[in-house]
TrEMBL record:
Highest taxon of the lineage: Bacteria
InterPro entries named among the record's database cross-references: ATPase_BadF, ATPase_NBD, Euk-type_GlcNAc_Kinase
Domain ATPase BadF/BadG/BcrA/BcrD type: 13-288
Protein name: ATPase
Pfam families according to UniProt: BcrAD_BadFG
Amino acid sequence: MMAKSVNEDQLFIGIDGGGTKCRATIYSVKQGVLGTGLGGPANPLHGLERTLESIMVSTQLALRDAGLPLETVHQLYAGLGLAGVNLPSLYDKIMEWEHPFKQMFLTTDLHTACIGAHEGSDGAVIITGTGSCGFSCVNGRTTNFGGHGFALGDKGSGAWMGLEAIKATLLDLDGLGESTNLTNVITEHFAADNAMAIVEKMSGQPSSSFAKLARYVFEAANNNDKVAVSIVKEGADYVSKLAQRLLENNPPRLSMIGGLAEPLNKWLAEDIAKRVESPIQPPEMGAVYFAQQSVLEQNQEVSL
């Protein structure tokens, strides 16, 4: 639920930052959503400067969309839900940032996604986008699984599927793996005619570049390509197990968020697919809730 006791004149901005994009929503208690903005990748694990730039781009676009002057940024109470800040070193680096907001409150993208999905109530959420991870909040107790980052984890994510597609393509091109239609699609995507040309183009690329290839895997799987089906089933099996672990905490609701949430759903274990409910609010609104609650708690501490 939205906090009820904040000042009606206060302006909040909720920011949801992940490996592919950064979304910002400016919210007024009195008027509701005023404007939104979209920036680039905002996972500090893959670049702190790029993350801060994406936050500012999405903020400025949201201000413009709201018809507010850029100087209004100094009046905003900001809630930030960012990928990667579950690592203490990255959390500290973001907190050291000389930000332009009136105040900034930082947590993980998992936390704000869960708050938004269940509108502040208890529940569990699985993010299946560029990366993958799970989070639940039940009776004030939070639990999270996965979220170990690319390429150490993030199984079932867009980046993982893209990487698996490239690995299968390279094996096929070298005559060491099973033949797959992914080879034609991937070589066409890169305008490459041999394995080393693909390796050269993907060398040093961020997880978001691999995630762009996930759609090819689903398309091939839906056309019964054996290799693609195997990739999707392996990813879906992991996400189903992730959901089962979260459901051990008995959350009243379970939602999936991210670009793969819809295409992956039909591949999940049947009992898990039946439990998945649509999120009530997006992660950036969860970040607004988080900022509101943080302001309320701060005010309560001052009044004691």
